[in-house]
Amino acid sequence: MSVSVAKQGYKLGHGHDEHDHEQVIYEETRDMRLLGFVLFLCSDVVLFSSFIFAYIYLRTTVAPIWPPMVGGHQLPRLDTAFAAVNSVVLFGSGVTMHYALENWKHGTRSKYNLFMGLTILLGAMFLGGQAYEYAHAQIGGWAGNTFGASFFTLTGMHGFHVFVGVIFLAVLWWQSSRAVYDHERFFGLTAGTLYWHFVDVIWVALFFLFYLW
Predict the structure, then answer these.
(1) ∠38-89-204 over CA atoms, to 5°?
(2) N or C: which end of the chain has fewer CB within 10 A?
(3) In order of start, what are the domains of the chain with their CATH numbers?
(4) Could you read off the pLDDT of 59-70 as tens digits, one per residue?
(5) Is this model's pTM higher than 0.70 or not?
């Protein structure tokens, strides 16, 4: 009897050691992956900054008035009210993503699924709003003038990031349903949240540049 108990105690202790070892490895690789992901976001900041500064240069040096004149007529300003509503949709998705991660940390699976689903839905709605705006904006095509080229390039690049983000979050949602993550190891969800907040912050700059300035 004592031998059996000793064997069971050894197995339990051995399993505990393995768990601790796996946790240490996870924490070490998590820190490295987090650093890599932050560097990736920094490279994206450089990319957007290059295009933003190019737009500011064109706006302040090329045309005396903005939006510029095309064919003897000044281009109309963009629909700020519509863009503001679409912006609220995107910023709202940032809030729901925050609560999705927090509920995952606290083990509230039903609320996590609710907020994660809302985040993906709001992201898709933002893309739909952007597609509608593209179809109705009276500023010429991408190659028609500097204003149109700048607008479609920058907002299109941002829209592509949102599209990738929606797919990214959908994959994370599917992975969480397949028990890929638990309440201690969920780096993928952290990365998804950081990425989604990044597209929110970039949109703040673009909204100011194209709709308010």
Answers:
(1) 50
(2) N
(3) 2-212 (1.20.120.80)
(4) 998 878 888 888
(5) yes
